[in-house]
Amino acid sequence: MTQTTQATGHLDPNQLNAFIDGELSPAESNGIQQHLADCHPCALRVLSATQLKAATARATQRFAAPPEALARLAAQLRPQESKRTARIYSFRSIAWTGLAAALVLALSLIGWRQAHQANTLSAELLDQHLATLSSGASPEVLSTDRHTVKPWFQGKLPFSFNLPDPLPADTTLKGGNLAYLNGQPAALLLFTIHKHEVSVFLTQRSASPMATPLPGTRSGFSIHSATTHDLRIVAVSDVNPADLDLLVSAMAQAQSPR
Amino acid sequence: MSRAPGHLAGPFHFQYTEASRTMSSTATSASFEQLALPLLPSLYSHAFWLCRNHAEAEDLVQETISKALRAFDSFQTGTNFKAWVFRILRNTFLTSRTGIAASRTVFLEDHPDLLDTTDASPTPEDYLISLDNQATVNQALDQLHPPLREVLLLCDVEELKYKDIALVLDVPIGTVMSRISRARRTLHQLLQPQLGESL
Predict the structure, then answer these.
(1) Residue B61 — pLDDT band, cuts 50, 70, 90?
(2) CB–CB contact A60 B45 (8 Å)
(3) Superfamily for A138-255?
(4) Which of A55, A169, B36, B109 could cysteine-pair with B137, CB 3.0–4.6 Å?
């Protein structure tokens, strides 16, 4: 299309159209402009075609969209807004359900506790364990790596601890949280054993108020504890007691210097 | 130590991906809106040329927007969004009732050899047509065969480049050029009698 029609020396229609539509390279355009300077008929054709192009462009104005139709269409551009909000709400509702469940559990535990006047500490441990289970919130430090979890507590606790390596079979570290037991800071470590949630609380032994031995079970949850030279380790879970003991003793063993 | 993700990690992972997906879809729809909003008048006007009916034109644009939004992931950034969305508009029209009826109109094949109508002895008067009356031009456009009108509107009104028109119409660029030639020649011929009358 870029070569001038050899027979006549005039622009062929495709060339002319490409020229007025701005489809040609600068070099091609220059060549045509030089031809137009010398060729009166072609210059007239280009003029006529340019006018026709402009008239065609104007012709569409009569089909302008009514403002109200445009407004409706513009509004339609944002329908996913409501869909997305709905999705967030549905996701939030899961969280709310979890929170409500936690509240019901906590309230029932309070009632149960008042009725039995039992050891408040074990109830508190269980509360914290259940709250962790039902809230669905992620731990402050979310890692399966003991080298990530342990340093996270530095500066947050007035004591330090070691994590066992390797962990007992089918036991996985999930993360950790800062917790308080009877006003004392505690490291809360979250594990799973055979997919059962385990909360392990580490407190300073000197500051530990647990003078009385903790009951072994509470509401169907096992509460196992161990003491090391500096620390008191309490684990809460619904996993079978033998497996819980393995973890507790592994934790205790990790604290003793090798 | 076992690092396999257990059921405790599961929900957190879900929470994270859900959040990031929502964020990315927010960004996506924001840019879709930014791209599509300025095109609404053009889309509507072009839809009207296709349907010749306000209600249908609005429905057509509506459906185009919803299709484009759903397919927006497949839109390649850096390519012409206008051409992409006009292509959706056109394909949506072709599958509509009006579009199916319109497509029954047999379009003359694109024969480049037939289109080469260079007049060996053109006179200046042959090229000059009376364009002072816009109504005359509108009338001529109405008489134009729809596929020819379509290509002319995409080129002259929507100012799309040939390669983008080729994308919208799903034809080779050579076909775009021959249709534009044919459309303008036909339009010129349709306007010629007007010139005769005015002389």
Answers:
(1) very high
(2) yes
(3) MucB/RseB, C-terminal domain (3.30.200.100)
(4) A55
Q: Is A214 in the B-facing interface, judged by CB distances under 8 Å? A: no
Structure confidence at residue B8 as a pLDDT band (50, 70, 90):
very low
Sorted by where each begins, the domain ranges of chain A are 13-61, 138-255
In angstroms, the CA A235 to CA A241 distance is: 10
Q: Does this model's pTM top 0.80?
A: no
What angle do helix axes A40-59 and B173-198 make, rounded to 10 degrees? 100
Domains of chain B, each with CATH number or no CATH: 26-103 (1.10.1740.10), 112-198 (1.10.10.10)
How far B51 CA sits from the closest chain A CA (Å)?
Answer: 11
> How big is chain B, counted in residues?
199
Q: What span, in angstroms and rounded, lies between the C-alpha atoms of A132 and A115?
A: 24
Give the chain B residue whose CA is nearest to the CA of A50: B156
CA distance B156 to chain A (A): 5
CA-to-CA dists, residue B119 to A47, A240, B127, angstroms: 17, 98, 11
Among candidates A18, A58, A77 on the partner chain, residue whose Cβ is nearest the Cβ of B37: A77
